[in-house]
Amino acid sequence: MGRVRAIRGATTVSENSAAAMTEAVHQLLDELERRNPLDPLDIISATFSVTRDLDAIFPAAIARQRDRWENVPLLDVQQMHVAGSLPRCIRFLIHAYLPALQGEVYHPYLRGARDLRPDWCVAPPLVCDRE
Q1: What SUPFAM superfamilies does this protein map onto (predicted)?
Q2: Where do the domains of the chain lie?
Q3: I want to staple 35 with a disulfide (CB 3.0 to 4.6 A). Which of 21, 66, 106, 115 is the partner?
Q4: What is the C-alpha separation between 11 and 27, in angstroms, rounded?
């Protein structure tokens, strides 16, 4: 089963629409699952935050539609606003059991959010051994 690990990730959208947010959240979670040895059944909980300019759809509602995510405890919150911060940004904090060491966990930062953590933007090889 592994140890409890915290995984961060973020992305941005070009507009405040359900379609744009849905595409971005799926891309973010696809990348999370492709690059980490993560089974959604091993997720303890996931918290999504959005900047105050995004209110078209709940990211947790998008995640809940994914295969094997329907029983994951999910929460949406509004990110604290700081002047000059990255607009139209969706972030997550996921706690899960992973066999990887904390330093081996891949934290997906995509699109405009790559500037938030450039040190975490180097993608490891794909995890192909899923059962």
Answers
A1: YjgF-like
A2: 3-115
A3: 106
A4: 9
Question: What is the distance between the alpha carbons of residues 81 and 95, in angstroms, rounded to a whole number?
Answer: 24
Is there a contact between 16 and 54 (Cβ–Cβ < 8 Å)? yes
Q: What is the pLDDT of residues 21-71, one digit of tens each?
A: 999 999 999 999 999 999 999 999 999 999 999 999 999 999 999 999 999
The two beta strands, 3-12 and 89-98, are: antiparallel
- The CA distance from 74 to 31, in Å, is 18
Task: State both tokens at 84.
Answer: 């000059």
Name the CATH architecture for the domain at 3-115. Answer: 2-Layer Sandwich (3.30)
Q: Is 91 annotated as a binding residue?
A: yes
Biggest alpha carbon–alpha carbon distance for the chain: 45
